[in-house]
Amino acid sequence: MKILKTVSFRTLGCRLNQFETDALVTSFHNAGYQVVDPNQKADVTVINTCTVTNQSDQKSRHTINNAASKNPDGLVVVTGCMADNYKEKLEGQEQITYVVDNDRKSQIVELVDGHFSGEVQHPDNLSGNKFGFETVQKSLHTRTSVKIQDGCDNFCTFCIIPSVRGRAVSRPDQDILENVRRVVDNGFKEVVITGVNIGRYDYEGVSFEHVIERVLELPGDFRVRISSLEPDGFSDDFYQLFSHPKLAPHLHLCLQSGSEEILLKMRRMYSARQFMDTVERFRNAIPDFNFTTDVIVGFPGESDADFQQTVDFVKKADFSHVHTFRFSRRTGTRADRMNEQVSGKVMAERSEVIRRISEENRLRYMHSMQQKEQRVLIEKVNEQGIARGYGEHYLPVEFAVTDPSTNRFEKVLLQETLPGEEPVMKGAIVGEPALKGF
Q: I need a labelling partner for 373 at 20 to 30 A (CA). Which of 262, 264, 327, 356 fits?
């Protein structure tokens, strides 16, 4: 009996990275490798890194060192944005076998296969194809993503993504539709549309909204969720698409600051007023629409008044979650060279303020959803028969089941909020009595 070579994966950062790792899992599986838990020793360890902030760099370095120490005799392949940002430094580390940039990430299986067959080549000799990933079959997650776009042309003053992901490029719309068809045929019930700046999708006149419309028209029992989106990437009528039952009524819409002056310094392509107009337009049409967001605190020159404007905005927009970043100086960006850098102490204090507001907003939003129904995609069922998954509004839900199978939808009545570090909604399957003891 042939003993399969083993491979493990570690992923940091954005949903796009998560998708690309899942696609690599499929590629290695199809090539005859056994995918093992990251804590196990493996013949190959693939680390998909992030470099968006200094903290991301630290986490990536720690993950690389940890993986290399656990697999001293195996191949260690480092890819992702850190591989682009610090390529030469990473190539100089003995514990790393290969450093593969984002453009060639989809070809890592070819590189590893060649290594084991004695045909060692430099990663730069691999063909580059940002959309060359296989359709996800074997995944580390219940839902799957479909990549429609890569790169960014916005050049915000704080961001290094254009330098590590490159200029914006869009995937052919027919390839996207075929990809969605295949993952639905493979049994996935939720498809997340992802990319670096998906609102700027444009392929031969087909816009972001048009490609979403076409995806929603595809047959099958599945739903579509849109990943992180910039506020300037759609028309005033975009909200109308969410009347379609397949499109989840949730958006992670990136604010960054509620101060008009700071948004200008960041070189964001919208104003705070335009952002709020979008929120109000959606909520007027869909009152319980769920918005989540990103906020950067401590951007150079952010005064107490600027920060207060962000506080007021976050409260008014009623985001159910705010992913708060402390400003991180990235070499090569204009913000790194700006005067009036904010102290770490002030950033920590401001971050804590936003965190508390975010928690209050989340509990209030969850309370407003009580006695409403959600179509929950079951991700796991524990030994006590308690299922957990997410409804279309992207709220975590727990409820009792008699059928332990996963990756299926159940209509659930939300009954109450269970408090904790990560609050969850308790529910019951519609038409069934709640089981005792839960």
A: 356
CA distances (Å), 103 to each of 111, 130, 327, in order?
Answer: 14, 5, 27
Read off the pLDDT of residues 56-115 as tens digits, 9 standing for 90 and up. 999 999 999 998 888 888 999 999 999 999 999 999 999 999 999 999 999 999 999 999
pLDDT of residue 1: 52
- pLDDT at position 138: 64
Task: Identify the CATH number of the domain in which residue 361 sits.
Answer: 3.30.750.200
Cα–Cα distances in Å, from 372 out to 180, 237, 366, 367, 394?
Answer: 30, 26, 10, 10, 14
> What mean pLDDT, rounded, does the chain reach?
93
Paired tokens of 430: 């519609």
- Four-CA torsion 278, 312, 325, 15, nearest 10 degrees: -30
SS3 label, residue 414:
strand
Phi, psi of 416 (to 5 degrees): -160, 170
Question: With pLDDT > 70 as the criterion, what percentage of the chain qualifies?
Answer: 97
Q: Which string of DSSP letters, residue by residue, matches 164-214?
A: HH-S-EE--HHHHHHHHHHHHHTT-SEEEEE-SSGGG-EETTEEHHHHHHH
pLDDT at 430: 94
Q: Work out whether strand 396-400 and strand 424-429 pair parallel, antiparallel, or are unpaired.
A: parallel
The tally of domains found in the chain comes to 4
Task: Assess contact for 352 and 297: CB atoms under 8 A.
Answer: no
**Which phi-psi region, left, alpha or beta, contains residue 62 (left: φ > 0; alpha: ψ -120 to 50)?**
alpha
Q: How many CA atoms lie within 13 A of 198 on its CB side?
A: 26
Cα–Cα distances in angstroms (integers) from residue 128 to residues 34, 105, 251, in the given order: 26, 8, 31
Question: For the stretch 165-192, what's the b/e string if a residue is b when 16 or more beta carbons lie within 10 angstroms of its beta carbon?
Answer: bbebbbbebeebbebbeebbeeebbbbb
* Tokens standing for residue 317: 């927009």
Is position 56 within any domain? yes
Spell out a b/e string for 284-294, using b for 16 or more CB atoms within 10 Å of the CB, else e.
Answer: eeeeebbbbbb
Strand partners, 378: 389
Nearest to 33 by CA among 46, 16, 20: 46
What's 247's DSSP letter?
B
- DSSP letter at 229 equals B
Q: What is the pLDDT of residue 312?
A: 98
Q: Is 83 in the same domain as 54?
A: yes
**CATH, residue 232:** 3.30.750.210
